[in-house]
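User: Hi! Is it possible to get a structure for several chains at once, not just one? Here's what I have:
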Amino acid sequence: MKILLVEDNERVTQFVVKGLQEAGHTTDHAGNGRDGMFLAASEPYDVIIMDRMLPGDIDGLAIIEVLRKAGKRTPILILSALSEVDDRIRGLRSGGDDYLTKPFAFGELLARIDALHRRAQAVNTEIPLTVGDLHMDPLTRKVTRGDRPITLQPREFKLLEYLMRHAGQVVTRTMLLENVWDYHFDPQTNVVDVHISKLRQKIDAEFERPLLRTVRNAGYTVTADD
Amino acid sequence: MLRSSALSLALGYVALGIVALVLFAAPLWYAWQVTIQDSRTELLQIDAQRLAEVFRRDGAEGAGSFIDARVRMQIAGERILLLTDASLHRKSGNLPAWPSNVPTAPGNYKVRIELGDHGMQTALVHVARLGSYNLLVGRDNALFAPLQTRFWYGLAAAVAILSIAGLMIGLISRRALLTRIDSIRQTVSAIIHGDLKHRLPTHLNDDELNTLSRTINGMLEQIELLVHGVRNVSNSIAHDLRTPLAELRSRLEELALIRPSPEQTFAEIDGAVADVDRVIRIFDALLRLAEIDAGLRRSGFVALDVADLAANAVEFYAPAAELKNIDLALRSDGPVSVSGDPVLLAQALGNLIDNALKYAPVNGSIEVAVRERGDGTVQISVSDNGPGIADAEKSKVMERFYRGDASRGTPGVGLGLSLAQAVAKLHGSALELSNGNPGPRAAITLPVDVTSPFALTATPQETGAGEAIASATLASS
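Assistant: Yes, the chains can be modeled jointly so their relative placement is included. Here is the combined structure:
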């Protein structure tokens, strides 16, 4: 993936660029709004990571608005130290696709970038999903592993569907809370983990190869690879 | 002193009063003067005509004796009569000679004449010619002088009374105003110096100053609350962030000193990241609390179904309850619409359930209930059969970071109940804690939003939220 990072803080830049490189992405970096606007407008990127507050007269939201008005549909993740809900809404309204509050875990950033990139490539919600020998048909709501049918509760179905749509990617607890339950707060306890372990009971318990795996310090992933 | 608003207002009214008085008196004065002069001139002309008739009938001698008779009869000084020949020699009348300042040409004149024992007087005279004789008929103004004087005195007295009364009222009200303003000023300066406990004095009567005082008191109430909140938050931050930060610091310092094996180092780093995460969580919770307290979130109010909200929360926590073998049940009577912030209400309810899960005994039970009550309110409650909260602890549990003795050793940052409390407050309600039967109960009461069409259009609960709750007993749904 080709990613543009517009961020003025050197430490954060170093940390993010290095991490993205290790994850196999090419990263361009702009340290102020002017350069960021120039790069974002002239180069084709898969995802743009935009710091909200930038030095100089052009801030992140202004760049996003200009890009969107110019018809650029590149997915944009806003990074910000402002965490209040209103700021979040303002960020998303200006044309951003996702919002991440500083400080953040790198795993969370990576997972969200992957999700944004995936979302940008028009997903057909009707085609059956397959990971290894696990199949899901979103239309008939039937789930099978091998030739064995699996019965899921509606919310478990939604959870598995989200995981399978992001197969091979890391999905964080926060992403699950936001997308499966529509909860935009930290429930303090490990309830998501309990839901995952229940789901794991149903899809993995009686099989040799586990598909739903825990990624340490980050979240979960559904994959058939080793 | 002239800058005093009360006094200048009073003086302004006095000036206005005087102007009004003058405006009233001037036309009156003018009308009076004109009318009297006219009627007196007319009377003089009638007199002159009568004398002219006598002169025509009886000649100069007859007129002279008629005049003498009149002069003798009348009250001295009132009427002035004089008949002279062509060379102005007195023939008869009560003037010694033709006054030098009266012309002999016929007409009406207003002149000052020496009138024997009355001295100089302003008089209105009429001069006529009878054959070769000159006739002067006149009346002095002595009769009207006292009336005039009285008019002027009256006017002056009215102005004086008005001025003095106005000045008195001005001074008195200035004094009263100053007394009250001074007490306000003293209170405010006490507040400026940091003592937010002070309130402006208010009285029973509802005048403008009192209304203002009350409004300002309300403002002070809110400011005190906010300042108190900020102080609380900063105290809490100081207290509760220091602990994990201190742990983190010693962990890192130890790591730098000991330089253990790579595996152990990585384990320590993971521990350090977890410490930082805990700090961030506390920070986020505090910021959200501050945001709710400031009332900033009221813009996010929408019509929502609390029964649906509760069903989702119960479904979300059901597996966690199952793990502890706790029976988490939902009791609701169908959709109930309220106006509120869905994210915050879900979080508040989540915190209450989370709390109950922490304190309910293994194999215990928790009931989440949504009860629509007769008075147009709906109560959302979470009760469990745990040990409950001692009365002494009840107010403390809602304080930030307070953790009861029973909670030592359980995870959490101690902000759950204060957040639920803040959310309830934002929705114009309060978090009620009671020790019911069998165990403790936390409840938030909200007004039902009857205007919202939500209750009618509410979608059926997403493919039976009840089914998803493995061990939940659905009392009624």
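Chain A has eight helices and twelve strands. Chain A touches chain B at residues 83-86, 101, 103, 105, 153-156, 181, 183-191, 194-195, 197-198, 217 (CB under 8 Å).

User: Great, thank you!
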